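so the lab meeting is tmrw and i was supposed to have these ready like two days ago... anyway. pasting both below. for each one the top line is the aa sequence and the line under it is the structure tokens. i havent really looked at them closely yet so no promises
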Amino acid sequence: MRQNRTLLNVGALGAAVLMLVGCSSGQQTSSGASSSGPVTGDITIAYLQKQGDQQYFIDQAAGARTAAQELSKPGASVNVKVVNLGQDANKAVTETDSAVAQKVNGIAIVVPDQKIGPQVVNTANAAGIPLVASDDSIKDGTGAEIPFVGFDGYDMGSKVGTEAAKRVTGKGWSPAETGVLYAYKQDLSVCADRVRGEKERYTAGGGQGKAIEVGTDNSVNGAQSTASGVITGNPDIKHWVVMGCNDENVSGVLQALANAKVAADNIVGVGLGGYIACKSWQPGSAPDGYLAALYIDGHDVGGDAVRALVNSLRGGTPLPPKTIARTQIVDAGTVGGTSLKCT
């Protein structure tokens, strides 16, 4: 097992939760088992991603392809077909149908909307095709979560909140003049988990200020647009602590603060992803308040999703319920020791 991930295999799997795997033509029993047994030949996996043009998901696709190459052997190659779903839930449904029609052996999906979970899971189940949720958890029609590969949202947020509290300590900012802004897509459970961790650990770490939540679409432009009105509407706040669901949210808020002429010395921004935050730490970059970020590596998640599917397909064994990747806080002084690529 690679050092940069933790595999949580919690034993026997419930009937509605997990699928034993086999060829795409295999019929699944009520216990989720495929009747066709292990796959001995070539394997094709469809990796369906939301927001596939974001650097994190580009890295994820690259990690999936690298893992496929590593797992390929003579007479039993592994191929990955990556599809960018954008933020289109309907496309996610049609591309799942297409993957089934193409008789792929396995599917990894990052859904644009978790509400379509039962639909895509049922489609894969009916065809006997094992499916893992990547990054954003989804449930089947009974409400049971399916196998998941990604990060522990609450733990991620906890690290961000702890770091933000540490960065604020000693600044002497008046709580009455400090705003703590959390920007995230509020109907996405993984974002809610991250922000809950941020809030709780920021407070536990001694961080103070007026908590403000901003609903966004998880994009830079979306966060900037929404935060602008919030900043204008709080003229008494002189200092800002910024956290959110991803780097895009924090970056968008920081741009809105810059437009509002808030000095970088009055901002503590802690990102989640690191791929945008690291641009602020490059030589010659002007300070913008982006002080740290939680580094998450899309390569790991993409690779882990492919490994989980291939190992299960070849072994005829259940998929692990959860595969959790490692994360770490980085800043200008430590980012050079990682493989983080700035975008």
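ok protien two:
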Amino acid sequence: MTEHAPDRMPGRTAARATTGQDDTATPEERTGTDGATGSAAPARSPDDRPEGRPGPDAAELEDRWLRAVADLDNLRKRYARELGREREAERELVASAFLPVLDTIDRALEYADADPESIVDGIRTLREQALAVLAGLGYRREDETGVPFDPSRHEVVGVVEPNGGGAAAGSVAEVVRPGYGGPGRQLRPASVTVAQSSEG
């Protein structure tokens, strides 16, 4: 009868047989983990960022900077061209609006020798046309009296006593020089005298 030699380390031998691993390997080598968390440690290159993506190098950053500078310069040139066109269009608009005024002056001068009264009529027409041009551009005439004094529309050049049938205290008594414009778009404030309170 043949005797089998007893297994000296039955547990270790069984583990070797089932896993196929060398018992001389370290736990990290056997499991492929970092030993601290038990999870597989990813391979990282020296240039990788914490997110795992390599950052831009100096050449790429310089290229981005040059592109941004070129785009900004192109934008500046395009804005300058557009601004010039807008200014030219505004000048053309104003000049065209005043052409009827010049036509009226020409007609008044043509009839000046035959009828001197036509000069006066021409001046009246010119005034109405000029006022219409300014109003069309957003600057209507401001020459009302008796309205409350408004520092955004009026410029005080004098203070007067209220008269019997005139302006009330704190209102415009007389317009010395008319203003042109409107709320938030004042071309020139009206120079006025203001009626003060008789108690002051």
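from a quick look at the 2nd one: The radius of gyration is 47 Å. The chain has two domains: 58-137, 139-200. will dig more after coffe
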